[in-house]
Every structure is written in C-alpha cells, then in structure tokens.
Amino acid sequence: MEIAELLEKAATYLPSEKLALVEEAHKFALEAHKDQVRQSGEPYLQHPLEAASILTDLRLDVTSLAAALLHDVSEDCHVTQEQISESFGPEVAKLVDGVTKLEYVSSQVSERPDGVDLQSESMRKMLVAMAEDLRVVFIKLADRLHNMRTLDALPPAKRRAIAKETMEVYAPLAHRLGIVKIRSQLEDLAFLHLDPVKFRHTRHLLDKQQLEYEKLINLVSNKLGVELEKAKLKTTISGRAKSIFSLYRKMLKYNAEGKDLGDIHDIIAIRVITEHEEDCYHVLGTVHSLWHPLSGEFNDYIATPKRNGYRSLHTTIICNGTPIEVQIRTQEMHYSSEYGVAAHWRYKEGVKQDPFEQRISGLRQLLEWHEEISGTREFLDSVRTDILRDQVFVYTPKGEIRDLPAGSTVLDFAYNIHTDLGHRCIGAKVNGKLVPLVYRLRNGDTVSIMTTKAERGPSRDWLNPNLGYVNTSRARTRIQQWFRKQAKSENIEKGKEVFEKEARRLGLSLTNREEIAALFGYSDLDDFYAAIGYGEISASQIVTRLATREEQPKVTGPVPAKPATPLSIKVLGTGDLLTQLAHCCKPLPGDEIIGYITRSRGVTVHRTDCPNIARVQQKERLVSVDWGRVDHLYPVTVRIDAWDRVGLLRDISSTVAEEGVNINLVRSEQNSDSSSCVVLTLLVRSISQLSRLLYKLEAINGVTNVMRGDTG
C-alpha cells in the first residue's frame, strides 16, 4: 500500500481539498517511523497505511484517516499528544490518544499470566472510548484486522492469545456495530490461529463444493437477471458461499440437532441489489415465481430491521435440489449491512451527526454505573452478558419498552427498573399470569412486579447461578452491594454456613480451611466467609475449587461408560503419541495448552503462558494439543429426605433426567411420620454436575434435605 493508493480510494467519497490533511499525516508518520520495521520484516509504515485503507472502505472522514496514520506514533515514536494537537488539531490528537490507550492495554494481554484481567481492562477502556467517540473503535477495529492478517510473524503462544481476544471481544463488537465485512474477516482469521486443523477441514469442505456452488450461482443469477430485465428493473446480482467460521459454527449447531451439511440452507447466498425499496418486493415475487420457496424460511428485515440496523428481505429457494438463500435489498441497505453504524457516521462542519445514538444507549447506561463495579474482570463479564448478547424487548404495565439481555428473568427486569424494586420483589405477573421469579423473559412480554411494603432485602439464593434467579451482572451487582452493607458478623456467619453446607452435601473434606481460603486469595478466614456471605464468592465457585483438591469419586463397580485415558489429550496433526503433563506449569483441564515434542518422552503438555514455552528456541517442536472429551462416568450415592406425597419419585426422576444424568439404582423407604427417604445411585461426569443437580433436587416440592452419601 502506497500513499497514492490511499488518496485515490479516499477521493472516491471525500472532497479533494480535504485530502491535504491525510497527506500531511502521512509525511509526519513517515518521518516518525523512519527505519522502523515490523516483525514480518516490512516497513512499519505499511501497518498504519493498511489500517487507513480499511477505514476508506468504511468511508470515514479525513480526521479518522489522519488519526489512523498517526495511531502508533505516540507509543512507538515518543511523540506527545501536544505535538499531534499542534500539527493536526485537537480532534485528531484526541482520536490518536484514545487508540493509544486501547493499544497499550491490549498489547499486554499475551505478555502476562493474568492476561484475562488485562483483557477486561482493554474492554473497559474500549467501551468508554466508544461512548465518547465511536471513531476510536473504528480505528481500533481496522488496526486489529490488519494485525490479524499479519499474525504469522508472532510466536505461537502470542498468536493464540491475540486470536482469542479477537474472537471474544473484537468480532462480537464488530457484529454489535453491524460491520459484517470486518466481523467475518476477524472471525475467519482468529479461527485459523485458534484451531488450524478445524479451519483447514472446514475450508476443504467449501473448496470441494466450490465448482458446484459456482454453477448454481451462475444458473440462478442468469435466469433471475433475464426475468428482472423483462420487468425493466435495474438490479445488480451477485453470489457467494458462507465464510469459513460461519459455516463451522452452523455445522456445530446442525450436528447437535442430528443434521448434516446438506441440511444447511444458507451455504450459498444470492444477493440482489435494487434502486428502490418497493422494487425489493417486486424482485421477491419474481424469485418465488421462478423457484419453489422453502416453507418457514422467509424474513422481512425491511419492515422489521434487526437490532443492529440490518435491513433486507431473506427467502430460501430450492434449485436442482439444493437450498439457496436469496437476499434482496437496496444499495443503501447493502452498504449499511456491510459497514453498519460506520455507514451513517458523518461529521459536518465540526458537528457530530449520529442517527444511531439509540443503538448504543444500552452501552451508555452500562458505563454510567460501571465505576460501582469492584473489578475489571467483573466489568468484562457484565459487557459479555449485557452488551454482546442478543436482547429481548418487554413492556412495563404502562407500555414502556425495556430491552434486556436474552435469558433475563423477571427479577432481572425488576432490578433494571429500579434497585429498590428488585430488593422488595416477592412475585411477578407476565401477560396477566403469575410466574416464578426464574421465568425467562420473551419478546413482547408485559411484566408487572409484585412487591412487599415491609422492609426487606434480597435472598442469598438469588446469587446462586445454579438456581437461575438473575442472569444480568447489573442485578447481581445490586444484590451483592446490599449484602456488603449488612453487618460483617452476619455475612461471616452466613458465609460459613453456606461453605460447610456445600462441602457436607458433596462429601468433601473440610480440613485446612485456611488453605482453601488461600485458593480464593484470602489470607484471613473471616474475610473469606464474609465474601461468601455477601455473594462475592458463589457456591458453584466453591465446588470448582474444592473439587480440584479432591480425587474423583471412587468407582465402586463396573460402569456402563467408555473409560477415558488418564490425560485425555489430543495431539493435533500427528499420529498417536505418548503425552504427559509438564511439572513446571501443571496445566488442568480447561487451561489453554500447547505440546512440546521431547527427544525421548513423547509430548510434554504445557500451558500456553508457561515461561518455559516462551523461551523455546526450536519452534518446530511445538505442536497443537487439545483436551479430549472425557466420557468417564462416576457412580455416586445421593440421599433425599422429603415428605411423602403422590408424584414425588416422578418429580425426582424428571429433574435427574433434565440434567442428563443416568439413575443406576433407586431405593425408597417410608417412615412412620409420613416422611420418606429416597436413595439414588447416579452416574455423573463431574463434581460440578453433581452440585447443580443437588440444588435442583432440593427445590422439589416437599424435599427437606439432599446430600451426597457414601460412595464406598
């Protein structure tokens, strides 16, 4: 990329007199980055030029292009913000400063073991910058896209860390902003580095069918083009196959439903661009007259746009036995679908014109209270649950619309309205009918919260993720804050009770409690109990940490399940090799791992952030490894005390089945006081699964106590 190419692209939509600022920024950056080269060996200036070029595809203003060219001069060339402001004005300087702050934190993600916290801080800073000036995020997305295109020059561990951050943060953010073109490229590039084997396999499936896909695209495009020309409609017709990661994600979904590749309806898509909105419906009629439409596969996103502003008509037809998706839209809709919010971001005479202000209103609300959250990790969790997930739209009794993350409950709704409403909530009605507090909201629901006039606070059960009362971080934070305000002695007492109950019911050892507290970062046992009491530490977290200190339940007899290998590790791209866990970093299932081929002991498995891996000189001896699927089932005895009633065993069996657990043996005893004891022998995969099931069994009507029995 040369400056002449960049100016030529920018001149297609910007006045020529404004391009002088871009030329000046290029000269400044050229001098600042003089003699600097990237790890790939190319001149460093290529990176800001490519980033600016990506922004011209988004048709951003000259200020953004200048800032993109200068976005690394502060960090890499020690140029001050004052110098940039003096040369290019305060607006360019502010954008460069915003991008520099994001880059500083993001660049640390793969450099330190606590990279998750740094990633959280990166997200926090990005969203704050996004609320102040969305152009900072556009520049950062362009910067990340070009970095992903040149990721091969970095060491394997750092490539994976950057790819993971891209998949978890940048691609969802691009999707949220409606920038499909950038999102799909980020996903494919991240997929390539996170799982090269699956990437190549998916690409092979696409390549194998490529010739057939092209024949179908040409057939449909030519036949439709002739008919539309007869109708004197001016259109542009094109076709494409799904992106690699998009196809992989769809294949996973279909495999889970027992379907195969041939059942996917939108591997091939034909796009028809029209001049006017009314022409879209005319084209739709022509399409349906030529081919049989697939029932249930029509969506009118013109009349009802998606949340990110996407507008188009979608229908699926059958041609030569193959389903093909047809998308019909105007040129304006098409540009918006490719570039989302960026397509409507304009700056005229220094005044920001933002018709998409409402789209990030939820983000701004989140930022208004993010300072109340105790840590950056919690903030990242709140962003993932409250911003980057799909939304549901529900009504208050007065007809006001509220949008919440998909999966929100009526209790989440109460806390969304007002903290005090959540604290005093005792029930709810949805569409006029009483529902439990764990009811998950659906689009169009009208929700009425029932409250008590008495002074009361939330229940600690509301913080238990196994019970499903609240699913938004806002509600959880409000509840935790209430408990933090209570007397510390009360929180200590309650926390100790929760801790001991959880350990007893699972049959886990309670020796050396100080050591267990230290696993959570607490040197004082009372502080540890208090954190449990006010909800900072949940019961499920206790289970996970305690389980790592215990052996798996003892096998008491033959178990009808396929035994797992001791390590259950897959070495990707090679034949069967001996594997062993490294003693230096001691990886556990769930850690990001990589293999090192030794000379005599097979493959040693390390965590990707292991210092010894970072110092490896012979990179060719590093291989991709993955935790294999563990199919081992462990028998465990569970005792249930309950008041005897009709249907008790049925309810217990249904609850166990819903968790996907097999019952190996059932024994029931009835006592003289109308109580009964049910003893089950269950086959579970992990102690976490057992913990979830015990909570659900305890919630059954009439059950008074549930605990793990002797496993022999």
Description:
The protein is an alpha+beta fold. It folds into 6 domains: 3-194, Hypothetical protein af1432 (Orthogonal Bundle), CATH 1.10.3210.10; 199-341, Beta Polymerase, domain 2; 389-483, Ubiquitin-like (UB roll) (Roll), CATH 3.10.20; 486-549, no CATH class; 569-627, no CATH class; 634-708, ACT domain (Alpha-Beta Plaits). It is 46% helix and 17% strand. It has 27 helices and 22 strands. Strands 1, 2, 3, 4, 5 and 6 form a 6-stranded mixed β-sheet that branches. The protein has a 5-stranded mixed β-sheet with strand order 14-18-16-17-15, with no helix packed on it. Strands 20-21-19-22 form a 4-stranded antiparallel β-sheet. Helix 3 (46-57) packs across helix 9 (134-149), helix 9 packs across helix 11 (180-194) and helix 10 (156-176) packs antiparallel against helix 11 (180-194). The chain starts with a helix and ends with a strand. Mean pLDDT is 79; it is low at 112-116, 346-359 and 549-567.
What's the main sheet like? 6 strands, mixed
| Mean of residue pLDDT values | 79
Name the beta content range.
Answer: 15-25%
Number of spatially distinct domains: 6
Number of helices: 27
Helical content stands at 40-55%
The CATH topology assignment of the largest domain is: Hypothetical protein af1432
Structural class designation: alpha+beta
In the predicted model, the low-confidence regions spanning at least 5 consecutive residues are 112-116, 346-359, 549-567
The level 1 CATH classification of the largest domain is Mainly Alpha
CATH superfamily of the largest domain: Hypothetical protein af1432
